[in-house]
Design a protein that fits this description.
CATH superfamily: SH3 Domains
Largest sheet: 5 strands, antiparallel
Helix content: under 10%
CATH class: Mainly Beta
Strand order of the largest sheet: 6-5-4-3-7
Shape: globular
Number of domains: 1
Order of helices and strands: EEEEEEE
Radius of gyration: 16 Å
Strand content: 25-35%
Length: 97
């Protein structure tokens, strides 16, 4: 059973405990509400793999503000985004053609 608290009620040391923070690199993974377009570039969608940077956090409905590497900016719910993790190439993969 839930606590009845919303995300904005959960604070640690007086600071909102958020999934993301400024400077995090993210990808847009949930297009059910916003679709797949230049301002909302779905990961592996029609715009490829565009990464964004979190530049602002806000306590409210659209908590995470992202500037995409294509120059667009938008705000999202945290569940619309996931962390971008740069792939690590193993030595034998560096020279594959």
């Amino acid at each position: 059973m839930g606590t009845g608290k919303t995300k904005t009620d959960i604070k640690r040391n007086g600071i909102l405990d958020m999934k993301f923070k400024n400077g995090d690199r993210v990808k847009y993974i949930d297009d059910r509400k916003f679709g797949d377009n230049e301002r909302n570039p779905l990961w592996n969608g029609k715009y490829g793999q565009i990464i964004g940077t979190v530049y602002k956090m806000h306590e409210g409905t659209m908590d995470v503000y992202v500037k995409w590497d294509n120059g667009e900016m938008n705000s999202y719910y945290d569940h619309n985004l996931d962390f971008y993790v740069k792939p690590i190439l193993l030595p034998d993969e560096l020279f594959e053609l």
